[in-house]
Every structure is written in C-alpha cells, then in structure tokens.
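Kindly go through the following sequence and its backbone structure tokens. Advise at your convenience whether the structure tokens fit the sequence:

___
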Amino acid sequence: MKTKFVTLFIFACLYLNGQTVNVTSIGTIGVSCSEYVNNMSKTWNINISGNRKLVLDYQVRIEHSYDKVFVYSINDSGTAILQATLTGSQNGSIQSLYPNGKMKVVFTSDASVNCSNNPTYSGFTVNIKKMTALSFNYDDNGNRTDRNIVLESSPSLRSSSTDSWDDEEIVFQEKVDIMIDDVKQKADIRIFPNPVEGRFAVSISNVSAEISAKIYLYDMNGQQIDMKSACPDGKTEFDLSGKAAGVYFLNIQLGDKISTWKIIKK
C-alpha cells in the first residue's frame, strides 16, 4: 500500500511539472492553495484575439525568493521578453509591450511548499484585461494634455489608467499609486527626452525615501543592459550612445509596483 501511495505521489508531481495551459479569452488565471505544491512548473500561454495590448492585474502570495511568477510579453516573431519576476507578497499591474494580445505567465515552486500550514502562502491570481479604446483630452489651445486608456476585463468589467505628455520637453509622465503602511501615495514618474539620441533621464518624485526604487533597461531582444537604484526626488540617467537605433524598454519597480516603458532610440 505504501509503495502504491508513493507511486501515485510521484506521478502527481510529474503531471504538474511542465504543465501548459493555452488562454484565449480574458479572465483570471493562477494557482490556489490547494494547487500550490512542491516542484511545480506551470505555464499559461496567453493569446487574445483583437491585436490589442493586454494588462495583467496580479496578486501574489507565495514563498519569497524560492517560488516565483515570471511575466513575459511575446513579440511578433514569437520571442518572449521578460517583463517582471514576482515573488513574496506583491500586488500590481503589468502592461504588455506589444499590441498583439500575446503574453506568457510561468509559475515555479521549490521542494518545500507549506501552503496548507501557512496562510501567508495562498498562491497567486492574475486578471487578464484587454485595452479596448483610447480617448484624449485637450487644453484651450488645442494641445493634448492626457490620454485615457480603457481596459476590458472579465466579465465586462472596466477600469482606466491615465498618462500625459508635455510636448515642449518631450516628456512622458505618469502618476502611480503605491501603498505604504496602508496609506496611498501617488508617485510621479517622468522620462525625458523620449525619443532619445543618447542620454535620457528618469525622474521619480513624491515617493517616501523608504520605498525601494529600481530601474531596469532592456534591449529589443529582452536582454538587460543596465540596472540602477533610483533616488526618490532625484534624476537617474541612462546612456544609449553607441547603441543601435530602435525600441528599448524600462521596467521601473517602486516597492511592489512595476511599470514598463518604451524608449525610442533614434
């Protein structure tokens, strides 16, 4: 009887290891506590029709450093570009890099999962939403002041995010909500100039000094080419001089909040 039990247990582990799920509609994916087992490896290949960007809202409650959720965008040639590695206790959202409805989420666990005895490790959920519309606001002089992004989630639930442009400085600006000790703070992120010829700067303001701020720079193939710790209320500079013209990506991590930005190198 014991031999039979061991055989069944090994079979279950092998089944979960390397499991792949194809996702073709908006909705929620993830791993619950009952599914959260040792040596797990599960992949969700997301392919939503409509050629739209996707937004993934995530809630992660897994063992810090040992168990991880990897989030990728998929470019038009099928290459996976790593956007974020999530672990521990994190909430936030990630927008895909390409308007093709394709992303990938991978979850891995180590050999010492303890979900049933530790309610802190309850697994994770990812809510997949599709960007469906844009609307623009203008000032009295006809200058565009902000862009509202409408998102479609399941079922027919909508939310919106806002970004704005300052055309005079060629600045991309966004305000990001961050929770510190249950108090919401609105961080102000500015990137200038963009497009760039060489050097550009990232300015992060209105953030408490206790917030960990890191900025990762990736090339067009998803290879990390630079990483810097950002000082709140200061500028962090990067240099693309000598790099090939094209699209580069910034991942800005403020505490548990990750946002992705596209940089154009002329």
